[in-house]
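Field log, afternoon session.

UNIT: design team B
ACTIVITY: writing a sequence onto a fixed backbone
BACKBONE:
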């Protein structure tokens, strides 16, 4: 990642994990500096309604006496989705990581926050049913739980199509 093409943007929202107002700093690539447009690079931890690859506008604002770039609104959704994987017991972390690495080889992006939380970005072109099937199988054995804070329209269609075939 070339630093000069990226900026740290503040996102302020209510966390779907803690139900508290939080401020999260995420990296984004400059798309159009004159129009303050950026493309999200990081995966949001707390479930904000934006996914990596989405294009958004950020504006300069003063926060606690300092000037920051702060998220304003999304201008173009990428079609990517975000999944939060929770591993309740650390002894299952290696097993879960091994399975998730299979998804990474298919194009999903993983961000291990700690031994209990892994964030996953699922690109538009990845079949969401394969991702969901793997996660559902692991959830059934109680080695993980997961949340889907952002499921793109395309991935929702993948799920609906699979349900219609069954």
């Amino acid at each position: 990642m070339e630093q000069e093409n990226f900026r740290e943007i503040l996102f302020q929202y209510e966390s779907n994990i803690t139900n508290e107002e939080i401020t999260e700093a995420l990296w984004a690539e400059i798309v159009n500096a004159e129009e303050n447009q950026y493309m999200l690079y990081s995966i949001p931890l707390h479930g904000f309604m934006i996914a990596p690859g989405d294009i958004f506008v950020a504006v300069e604002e003063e926060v606690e006496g300092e000037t920051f770039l702060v998220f304003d609104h999304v201008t173009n959704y990428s079609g990517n989705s975000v999944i939060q994987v929770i591993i309740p017991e650390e002894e299952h972390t290696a097993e879960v990581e091994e399975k998730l690495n299979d998804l990474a080889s298919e194009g999903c992006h993983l961000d291990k926050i700690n031994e209990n939380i892994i964030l996953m970005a699922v690109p538009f072109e990845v079949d969401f049913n394969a991702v969901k099937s793997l996660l559902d199988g692991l959830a059934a054995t109680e080695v993980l739980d997961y949340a889907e804070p952002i499921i793109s329209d395309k991935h929702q269609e993948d799920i609906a199509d699979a349900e219609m075939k069954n």
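LOG NOTE: Residues 79 and 154 are 6 Å apart (CA to CA).
NEXT ACTIVITY: expression trials, pending approval
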